[in-house]
Amino acid sequence: MNDLQTQLFTKLQQKEADMIAIRRHFHENPELSFHETKTAQYIADFYAGKDCTVQTNIGGGHGLLVDIHGGKVGPSLAIRADFDALPIQEDTGLPFSSKTAGVMHACGHDGHTAYMMILADSLIELKEQLTGTIRVIHQPAEEVPPGGAKGMIEAGCLDGIDHVLGIHVMSMMPLGDVLYHSGSVHTGRATFKVIMQGKGGHGSTPQDANDTIVAASQFVTAVQTIVSRRIDPFDTATVTIGSFDGKGSANVIKDSVTLEGDVRIMKEETRAIVEKEFKQILDGICHTFGIHYELDYANDYPVCVNDPKTTEMVATALNEAQIPEVKQLIECGPQTPSEDFAYYAKERPSCFFFVGAHKEGTPMYPHHHPKFYIDEDCLLIAAKSMGAAVLHYLSEGV
User: Fold this and answer.
1) Which of 201, 221, 327, 390 could bridge 176 with an S-S bond, Cβ 3.0-4.6 Å?
2) pTM beyond 0.85
3) Which of 142, 162, 255, 340 is labelled catalytic?
4) What share of the chain is helix, strand, coil (3-state, %, to 5)?
């Protein structure tokens, strides 16, 4: 382990309690996407007076950019952490549970921001020994389309940047594991809302009505054939109907039903196939039942593609770093969720990798669950892992 890395890891170790305290502050005070006013102010206050350049209110929202200029000229690397929460009522029983009813950090973004702030603080203290520039991207609104990344990129957050790195802590992966994948690592996504409009009536006279419950039910079943019969078995796609709003009275035929859901794909070329088939099935079923429909079909997050050379650099850096808390470095394969980090990866060679956060012998809950939980030991692992990648990049490049 080189001297600079030793210094950085020592600082991170000494500040681990601060890291955890910051994470708990955010966890207690979550804010929804595009409404993270107090969170953004807390982050800005943290950097006040430090030897770095800070820009606030980036991208028409609450984004922040923190530039750390090394003592020598060199490459420019951006490292990103998100900080929005979700509209979920927390049910963890933690002493630092959310104080805001119906809002919870149920995806680990509080941890992302906490480790990143302490890592940035430590890199600022070592900046004269660094070669190149580090840009810390504190991003709002990852959870809600169009996503905070898109606006920040449009505002120039990647101007002058050569590569981008990001980490996600994972509640379903073992603590001590750091995981990566080269190529398509996260699915792309589309969301949709369908309003089917028929003719209501009395349950005793169905011949006088056009039943949208029956039509919508046929659609829910038929749309699953897109994946089973129109997508290559070696490809990846899902079509999910997450909401079926057809509540009414037992003896009344509904005149209107609203369906909402999403689509996930692992290849951008598959996106067009799913959309075409979706619209064709919807049109055919509504024609068959003599009803009308309104469709809002929005393609949003792209497939997130890790650049092979950048990913190889990260894997090499982590192997060479010999981080004591890291038990395994694993090539994990593609992951099915979607992430707006994909927008950065479209613009610059990037790597988005993962840090396990589940401690053996404790309950395990998925992301976006009311009982979602991460073991806080993952924060130091994330900070050291990203720190090792940053130092390797600035000294060796890609």
Assistant:
1) 327
2) yes
3) 142
4) 35, 30, 35
